[in-house]
Design a protein that fits this description.
The chain is of the alpha+beta class and about 230 residues long. It is built from seven helices and two strands. A two-stranded antiparallel sheet has the order 1-2. A hairpin with a 4-residue loop joins strand 1 and strand 2. The two termini are about 20 Å apart.
């Protein structure tokens, strides 16, 4: 999970740098800092709770009219930066699965199998969000850790890793704040209106979405623990 978070946040970081956006901090994990290194422009940090990470860009949380500010970049550049994390997870998951198939088939069949694999993940999400799947079937970090710990071989481990990476990428791009997809939706609205949304409105939308995700996370973690015991 920590590695998948690393490449996700690394996608944001890389494209921010390519778009000449100043990155104040690149962190893996939340909570207390257990290691850090300050460079001329960016602080790199490893935090105690390895269940996420973040890239703190200049002008992202609060608009700033300085050089290298995220809020001053074009709509297209901001969308690319925000989408990069999820897209990297998707590409990584597909690449892992393709490599796995090229060992169990031919390259052509591996390509077909990888395509079917991607469609199956998307279909699973459709089933979830259309209410055809029960909420208690969802799994979170605790459940994922249990699945990984019970894998019986390297190939099975790679398969699970590819499923998690692809699911993480697709889910993160759903148009629901504060997920990256929700941020992209707000940026598209800003582009259509041709003027920025009110900052307090954006904050309220993000906070409502964040509160909903917290409630969902608690529910899923509770179910994971019940399944363990």
């Amino acid at each position: 999970l920590g590695f998948l978070v690393l490449i996700h946040e690394g996608g944001h970081f890389l494209f921010a740098k390519l778009c000449k956006i100043k990155v104040n901090e690149f962190a893996i994990g939340f909570g207390p800092t257990i290691w850090k290194k300050q460079t001329k422009e960016t602080k790199y940090a490893l935090r105690a709770i390895p269940l996420g990470g973040f890239v703190n860009m200049e002008g992202e949380e609060k608009k700033a009219e300085t050089e290298g500010s995220f809020s001053e970049a074009s709509i297209l550049k901001r969308i690319i930066i925000v989408a990069a994390g999820g897209l990297v997870n998707i590409l990584f998951g597909l690449l892992l699965y393709f490599i796995l198939l090229t060992t169990l088939t031919s390259v052509y069949n591996a390509l077909l199998g990888t395509w079917d694999f991607a469609i199956s993940i998307i279909d699973s999400l459709k089933i979830l969000f259309t209410g055809q799947q029960q909420m208690n079937q969802l799994i979170g970090p605790v459940g994922i850790s249990g699945i990984i710990s019970n894998t019986s071989g390297f190939q099975e481990y790679i398969y699970i890793l590819s499923v998690i990476s692809l699911s993480l990428g697709v889910t993160n791009l759903l148009p629901f704040p504060p997920l990256d997809g929700g941020k992209i939706l707000l940026l598209l609205v800003e582009g259509i209106r041709r003027k920025p949304l009110k900052e307090d409105f954006e904050i309220k939308v993000q906070m409502l979405g964040f509160a909903a995700l917290i409630v969902l996370s608690i529910f899923v973690t509770y179910n994971d623990i019940l399944k363990v015991f």
